[in-house]
Amino acid sequence: MSERRPETAAVRGGRPPALPGVPAVTPLHRETIYEFASAAEFAEVMADSRRGYLYSRIRNPNTDELAGAVAELECAAAAHCFASGMAALSAGIDGLAPAGARVVATRQLYGQTYSLLRGRGDTVFVDVDDHAGLERAAEGAQLVVTETVSNPHLAVADLEAVARIARAAGARMMVDNTIATPLGCRPLELGADLVAHSATKFLNGHSDALAGILAGSRELIGAIAERALDTGATLSPDTAWLVRRGLRTLHLRLERSAANAAAIAAFLDGHAAVQSVRYPGLAGDPHHAVARRTLRGFGGLVAFEVAGGRSAAETVMDRLGLIIRATSLGGVESSISHPASTSHRQLTDAELREAGVSPGMLRLSVGVEHQDDLLADLDGALR
To answer: Which active-site residues does the annotation give?
Structure first.
């Protein structure tokens, strides 16, 4: 090859040759475009008659790896990554129930999901335990939406019963499995058609990446992925790499988080300053029985109501020294928030009451710190 001029060397020089040795961890692929050995190969990949990488909005090795890992965890045929949990939920809802199609949703939902569905104007909300009401509402509906474990009230949906009702009505079922994670529940095995995750939360686990994922049949995910090319809520390779790294320790983090949460729930249960505690692992929790049937483990969230309403709840928050005051959940650090003014601020007072979110409710996302330190922090704050 003749000597290249400096301008060309600056652009094209220094690329290393392929050498023996494969990275144990998939490298970060920040490239947006890919080159081909021939025009014919380029045309085949462009036409999708041959699988390959063309443009990162379409496909990227890092998002492919993350999608593949979550699909395997959920026992799904395929998965697709999105730029956020809400992007994934929006794509799933629109894919299963286009504008004008009727949707039925359980009332106990994350506030932004509730707001999204309410804004459609064709959604009927039903209490998660009202199966008779769900059966009536589902007639003529195209989609039923629920959460495995609701945020923040930790109501556990009887997914098998909800799936039977949806199938009988000719509707499909979408489940947000963010709180339970695939280690706690696999909704597809219980009759769901599509599973959604805010991968920002437990899947990533380090409060440093914003991502969403849908998992389901190859046909359904293929159609949703095709539509995502138009809407463009693409997950960046950097973020996909971070979530995939976090996913490697999900089982270890969740085990520690759940053990801490169980101890904290037991401590709060019956505490003089606490009116009520919601944790599906407590024998007296209203969803304990369905949780034992539906979940593998009871998770790392605890919700509790402080006597004295919002002002008393905020006083407890302000007295905490170790547990941080922050939104989101599922990180290695323990955090606390006031749902009525944060995650569910979009709801009216009446909607908050219907959803079971009281002014004195606090949501605790339990991290992996030492259990005794967390208990001591809560004990001091509640005195």
So the answer is: 57, 110, 176, 201
